[in-house]
Write a structure and sequence with these properties.
5-stranded antiparallel beta sheet, about 170 residues, 3-stranded antiparallel beta sheet, Immunoglobulin-like, 2 domains, 13 strands, mainly beta, about 50% strand, 1 helix
């Protein structure tokens, strides 16, 4: 540890919390005349002060698995979580506009894969998808990938699905 500087401030628990999060340690409150202040000490680690600044995460879109006529599993892996756990999921649709939306997210850190099943797909249809990871710094996206659902077995028909508009939404 090394002494960084004398600062003046009105000491509070909130300020102590944020100084600690930024990698500093507050040594007491000292009165110098009518000025309050404290010595601030850095907590050095081999890679510098802790914690490092957050950055937008990077993520890989892994191949779809369990591809069936009306369902599939979309997969991804955060390559770098950017400094904190990320909310990870996949966007998907019949085009690269991902018009069907996104899967529910899962909290993941670097190297920990995530997967979500989707259903209600049309048989023998190509779909686009890409993984995403979000932390406090922003959202990173993986590359676009595609899969094509399988055909239904002979004599089997796809179920009719009707989506009604939402009602009573405030």
């Amino acid at each position: 540890m090394s002494v960084a500087d004398w600062i003046t401030f009105e000491r509070s628990k909130a300020l102590d919390f944020w100084l600690t999060r930024l990698g500093y340690f507050v040594i007491g409150t000292i009165m110098k005349g009518a000025v309050r202040g404290a010595w601030i000490v850095t907590m050095d680690t081999p890679s510098g002060p802790y914690p490092p600044a957050l950055v937008i995460p990077t993520v890989t879109t892994d191949a779809a698995t369990e591809v069936e006529p009306i369902s599939s599993t979309l997969n991804g892996t955060p390559d770098d979580d950017g400094g904190e756990a990320c909310d990870c999921g996949s966007e998907w649709g019949e085009t690269a506009a991902y018009e069907h939306g996104a899967t529910p997210t899962q909290s993941r850190t670097t190297g920990h894969s995530f997967a979500r099943s989707i259903s209600g797909l049309s048989p023998s249809t190509p779909y686009h998808f890409r993984a995403f990871a979000t932390n406090a710094a922003g959202t990173g996206y993986g590359a676009d990938r595609t899969f094509t659902t399988g055909a239904l077995p002979p004599g089997v028909t796809a179920p009719d699905v009707t989506t009604n508009p939402a009602t009573g939404v405030i």
